[in-house]
Amino acid sequence: MNCSTQAARSRRAELLKQHLAVQGSQTRLRARVKEILGENDAHQVVTSENMTKVVAHVDELLEIDPQDARHLFWEEMKRIFYAMREVQIEDLDEETMDEFMTTMDAVSNVLYRIEKRRKGREAKTEKLRF
């Protein structure tokens, strides 16, 4: 964290206090710790370039099999990305934040399971190489 032990303790205490205040999930806490420690993967950064890739991926899925509903995942992620750019601080009240955090905890849990499954596949592939 590039800070003193006391500052790190203080930061951890504040993080835990905030997490408990919103009654966040374990997955959300894990993601926040990774974010603070700078352990987020580069592919997790949302950029216009990444969004262009997502849109292309959605289009590709629709061309391959229009009946495959998996394209909806990327469509919804894209919609969230664009909506985030429009939200203003005055749009967020306590009730909205509570609802948002509850919903995002559920989404975070699903994304964590997807990430875990992917890492498991990658580990199996890596073992097969050696």
Structure description:
The protein has 130 residues and is mainly alpha-helical. Helices cover 75% and strands 0% of the residues. The chain has helices at residues 5-21, 26-37, 48-64, 71-86, 94-129. The longest helix is centred in the last third of the chain and has 36 residues, at 94-129. 0% of the residues are buried.
State the distance separating the first and last CA atoms.
35 Å
What series of H and E elements makes up the topology?
HHHHH
Q: What integer value in Å does the Rg equal?
A: 18 Å
Largest sheet: none
Share of residues in helices: over 70%
| Mean of residue pLDDT values | 80
Number of helices: 5
> Judging from the principal axes of the Cα atoms, what is the shape?
globular
Structural class: mainly alpha
Low-confidence stretches: none
Strands, total number? 0
Work out the strand percent: under 5%
For this entry, give a set of tags.
0% strand, single chain, globular
Secondary-structure map:
Elements: H1 5-21, H2 26-37, H3 48-64, H4 71-86, H5 94-129
Compact overview of the structure:
The chain is mainly alpha-helical. Helices cover 75% and strands 0% of the residues. Helix 3 packs antiparallel against helix 4.
